[in-house]
UniProtKB/TrEMBL annotation:
Protein name: Reverse transcriptase domain-containing protein
Top-rank lineage group of the source organism: Eukaryota
PANTHER family for the chain: REVERSE TRANSCRIPTASE DOMAIN-CONTAINING PROTEIN, REVERSE TRANSCRIPTASE-LIKE PROTEIN WITH RNA-DIRECTED DNA POLYMERASE DOMAIN
The organism's taxonomic lineage, starting at the top: Eukaryota, Fungi, Dikarya, Basidiomycota, Agaricomycotina
Domain Reverse transcriptase residues, every copy: 1-114
Length: 477
């Protein structure tokens, strides 16, 4: 026991076990399959009660001839109804060594949980994946109580190595999942990534993927399923896994319920096309197109948001000339060492700050809404209180002017050679913000300004316009 040779030795020992052919055997693309072995975990199956009883008798006979005995306490029966069956499945009564075997509604085999407790075979498996992933996420975040805030890059590595495997476990077999199943496991992904970025629990989801370069879970699971399909297509025609795929394809052609039919349906929802005779080249094309769909999905969510003005205008100035930035990329500003400074610039960029342009979206008990143009700066009360105004424009607070003066002084010493201070002063606020954000030597200075300005604003009461103020503003405009 415990020796890595033990599973192989047992498989060699049981290699001569076989069952008597039966009319109700499971047939995969013309190949009868009656049993599988994974080390000493043996599974027998048939499409009828009589067929399965025959195989149990064969197993008992083989075991007695080979000085072995089947463990009855670990032997259970599972009965699966046909998909969309209208009649209730009758419980079978099967025997081994003269004893009636227990009927189970939930059982794990090679790490995958099968269940007949609900209408969906994989509900229990998805719940278990969610539970394990959430436990892993909480254990990782518990580190913060000992070492401080978890840096995003290291958190991203831990997510991909410790959480993602649970969220995608066996998705090659179970498929991407129903919307309800996806909601359960995506909640764990969103929870962890929000904590990693220092965002609140109702932040926009698209920014989690654009800033950390992590795919939404439904795309990630589809990618793995497509890669598994590509692997199956590379197997010899007589390989059991390839036979299972070929049978699923045959079923899909006849519009019967099958694994491949579900895969095609999921791909169609993502605007990907799979034929009724898939090839490795076709799957490779689908994978390439899926990568484009992920970026398109994230870009569309960002561009359609009324809150993400700064992200929509983001450009990269690191080489001197502005150029577009990738939709999904681990952003350099997330490598800022100070947690306070990193969170300050992250929250301003992703519209998760406490300035009036965002906070006055909420009613907070008021009987009226406040339009964007009325969410005025608490100091000057002449412009909307939004990040660029607060950072670079408002001059109605001495503290803000002092912070800005210190900012320009620090910036003079850290500018790259192809930029001069007059060049920066001539830029509009939006370009200046993104330039400083994209240059490694200036991103810390920008973050320090963000933190200081936010502290100034948070220590002064917010201006909340009355209905009369809103009406006067509308008349003026």
């Amino acid at each position: 026991m415990g020796d890595p040779a033990s599973p192989l030795a047992f498989l060699i020992y049981i290699s001569d076990f076989n069952t008597t052919p039966h009319a109700d055997d499971v047939i995969l693309n013309g190949v009868p399959v009656s049993h599988l072995e994974h080390a000493d975990d043996v599974v027998l199956f048939s499409t009828s009660e009589a067929g399965l009883q025959s195989k149990l008798d064969d197993l008992a006979a083989w075991a007695s001839l080979n000085q072995m005995q089947v463990n009855l306490q670990k032997t259970v029966i599972m009965a699966f109804p046909r998909p969309y069956a209208r009649t209730q499945l009758q419980k079978p009564q099967l025997y081994l060594y003269g004893q009636v075997l227990t009927i189970s509604q939930k059982q794990a085999y090679v790490g995958v949980t099968f269940s007949t407790e609900s209408s969906n075979l994989w509900d229990a498996h998805i719940r278990l994946c969610e539970k394990r992933a959430r436990l892993a996420a909480n254990k990782i975040l518990f580190i913060e109580s000992h070492v401080g805030s978890l840096p995003p890059w290291e958190g991203r590595l831990l997510y991909r190595s410790q959480i993602d495997p649970h969220l995608t476990w066996a998705c090659e077999v179970t498929g991407c999942g129903t919307l309800k199943q996806l909601d359960r496991i995506e909640d764990v992904q969103h929870y962890f990534l929000r904590r990693l970025l220092g965002l609140q629990s109702r932040s926009q989801l698209c920014v989690l993927f654009s800033e950390l370069d992590i795919s939404p879970l439904r795309f990630r699971r589809l990618e793995l399923q497509l890669r598994y399909t590509q692997h199956l297509l590379s197997l010899p025609a007589d390989h059991l896994a390839r036979c299972a795929l070929d049978q699923a394809v045959v079923n899909a052609r006849s519009r019967a319920h099958s694994w491949y039919a579900q895969l095609r349906s999921t791909c169609t929802a993502r605007e990907l096309q799979l034929s009724d005779a898939p090839t490795e080249v076709e799957i490779e094309d689908a994978l390439s197109n899926l990568s484009d769909r992920v970026r398109q999905y994230v870009a569309t969510a960002i561009n359609s948001s009324a809150k993400l003005d700064l992200l929509q205008a983001r450009r990269d100035f690191s080489t001197g000339r502005p150029r577009p930035v990738p939709v999904m990329q681990f952003r350099p500003y997330l490598r800022i060492a100070s947690t306070e400074l990193r969170h300050a610039v992250t929250r301003l960029l992703l519209s998760e700050h406490s300035l009036s342009v965002e906070r006055l979206r909420w009613r907070d008990g008021r009987p009226y809404d406040i339009p964007r143009e009325a969410r005025l700066c608490r100091f000057c009360r002449t412009a909307v209180e939004e990040p660029l105004h607060c950072l670079f424009h408002c001059r109605s607070s001495q503290d803000l002017c002092t912070a800005r003066k210190a900012f320009w002084s620090s910036l003079t010493r850290k500018l790259p050679s192809h930029w001069s201070l007059p060049d920066l002063r001539n830029l509009d606020a939006e370009d200046l913000f993104h330039l400083l954000l994209s240059v490694p030597t200036t991103v810390d200075i920008l973050a320090a300004l963000c933190a200081r300005v936010m502290n100034i604003y948070e220590t002064h009461p917010r201006f909340i316009p009355s209905l009369d103020d809103i009406a006067d503003l509308s008349e003026d405009s």
